[in-house]
Design brief:
alpha+beta, binds zinc ion, 6-stranded mixed sheet, 6-stranded antiparallel sheet, 24% strand, 9 helices, globular, 385 residues
């Protein structure tokens, strides 16, 4: 049982992120873990975050939808959590996977506004107005998780509907995310990493996570000045933010996960790539697909803003230009061959196993999911009772 719970917590850990390219909704972690009527269990439980993420995945029809969690600092020592859960939340805080604040205020709404993300909260709409009244009034932008038959479901704060809607980044958000920022506080988990210089953080060196500046969260604006939400210090402008591109793996018609490319960080996708940061497909493949797809099958690089795909497999891949599923349109990509991934193009590793830009991957399954899947899809994670 304990082992099962830590496995679930690990699975949840893969679905919390402050990376603006990957986060799909914003939550207040302290609030979510106390949604006692979701499961009628303990006063506080970190597993409820998993339940809400699960519901979001069902609603968005995607396998893995990370959430941007804002965390009140008191939660790190909340006695209602198990010691294991507290340890996990502290680790997320240290690694910058969640944003820990002394006073979250309406930071949740600010992040949603800057990044164009929906907010999942049960705080009453009239308690949410303030600096972002229009956000609260927009359909699909602020949704409340409520207990449902098959797990939590969402209801809109205003109007009807239950579908979380993402919008565009606000103009302020787009501007903030075009630069990289540096916090003066040594070891800042949100705006530190690389070139922090000196500081007193030598003892924590092993804990410093290599965070790509491309994935920095949005600063908070205080009187129009970009500020570290954690430390309240004015942030230094460290130059233009490196370019990045988001790609998604679709298996059996369902997007399984998204990943980010930067010019410094190429990504290898395959059955079980050896490379650090490799995208592992093995768990979603049936025996035939697993035999066909190499451990490392394709490599993606970002060069001057273009996505280059190189086949590094034994059996080769194919390109589906403009996402066309017509066999006549399929262009083979032989082993060691490279190609620029044009707009709408999809790389196909095996029938039903495709990689492309998430918004360009056609929805619906051209192949029945069971033909490529090792087992029934676990939409996110099953919670032990
Ligand atoms: Zn800071």
């Amino acid at each position: 049982m304990r082992f099962e719970i830590s496995k679930v917590l690990d699975a949840i850990e893969g679905r919390v992120s402050t990376d603006p390219s990957l986060a799909r909704a914003v939550v207040d972690l302290a609030e979510v873990i106390r949604y006692q009527d979701l499961d009628g269990g303990r006063p506080a439980s970190l597993l409820r975050l998993g339940m809400v993420i699960d519901a979001l995945a069902r609603e968005m029809e995607e396998d893995s939808v990370p959430v941007y969690a804002v965390v009140h600092r008191a939660l790190l020592s909340d006695a209602d959590l198990t010691s294991n859960e507290r340890m996990v939340v502290r680790r997320w805080a240290d690694d910058g996977l969640v944003e820990v604040l002394d006073n979250p205020g309406d930071r949740m709404l600010e992040v949603a506004d800057l990044l164009g993300l929906p907010v999942l909260t049960r705080v009453r709409a009239d308690g949410l107005r303030g600096r972002y009244p229009w956000l609260v009034e927009q359909a699909g932008r602020v949704l409340a998780p409520v207990p449902g038959a098959g797990g939590p479901a969402f209801v809109a704060h205003v109007g009807g509907g239950h579908t979380p809607v993402a919008g565009d980044r606000s103009p302020a958000g787009a501007k903030l995310l075009s630069r990289q920022w540096r916090c003066a506080e040594p070891g800042c988990a949100l705006f530190g990493g690389g070139g922090g210089g000196g500081g007193g953080a030598f003892a924590d060196l092993a804990r410093v996570v290599e965070r790509s500046p491309a994935g920095q969260p949005p600063p908070t604006l205080r009187g129009g000045v970009p500020t570290c939400p954690r430390h309240g210090t004015r942030l230094g402008d460290a130059g233009p933010r490196p370019r990045s591109a988001v790609l998604a793996v679709r298996v059996g018609g369902l997007i399984r996960r998204r990943f980010v490319l930067t010019e410094d960080q190429p990504a290898v996708v395959g059955r079980a790539p050896d490379q650090a940061g490799g995208i592992v497909l093995g768990q979603w493949l049936n025996d035939e697909a697993r035999r066909w797809i190499s451990r490392s099958h394709v490599r993606f690089e970002l060069r001057v803003g273009e996505v280059i795909v190189t086949d590094v497999s034994t059996n080769g891949s194919g390109i589906r230009p403009g996402g066309s599923m017509a066999e006549a349109d399929r262009v083979p990509l032989a082993p060691q061959q490279s190609r620029v991934l044009a707009e709408g193009d999809m790389v196909e590793l095996y029938p039903g196993v495709q990689i492309g830009r998430p918004d360009e991957l056609p929805t619906g399954a051209p192949y029945t999911p069971t033909s490529v899947m090792a087992e029934a899809p676990t939409m996110a994670m099953r919670l032990p009772r």
